[in-house]
Amino acid sequence: MLKRYWRHLLFFLFVTGFLISAPLVVLHTAGYRYQFGSGKIVQTGILNVNSFPKGALIYLDGKLQKERTPAVIDNLLPGSHHVRVAKPAYSTWEKTLEIRSRESTFISNIVLFLDQSPQ
What we know:
Order of helices and strands: HEEEEEEEEE
Oligomer: single chain
Helix content: 10-25%
C-alpha cells in the first residue's frame, strides 16, 4: 500500500513538472524572455552587424561577443543597447541603438579606417 502511494506521488510530480517545463522550453525557443526591469515577458529582437573590413570585434553593452563581423546577434531584450565595433590598427565605431521586440536591426556600411597612414 505504501509503495503504491509513492508511485502515484512520483507520477504526479513528473506530470506536473512536465506540464510546467514544456511550455517554458517552447517559449524560450520562440525567443520570449523575462525582462526584470519591467517585470514582463517580452519577445526578443535581432541585431545584424556588418563592417568593412570584416572580422572586427563586437562589443554589446561593454561585453565582447563571440561573433565577429559580419554577425547576427539574436535574443536581445528590447531597449537601448550600446554597440562598439573595433579592430586592431583601425578606428573604433560606436553607437547606442534601440532594439525592438520581434524586429531586426541592421547596422551595415560600417567602415573602419586605418589609424595610421601606410608605411
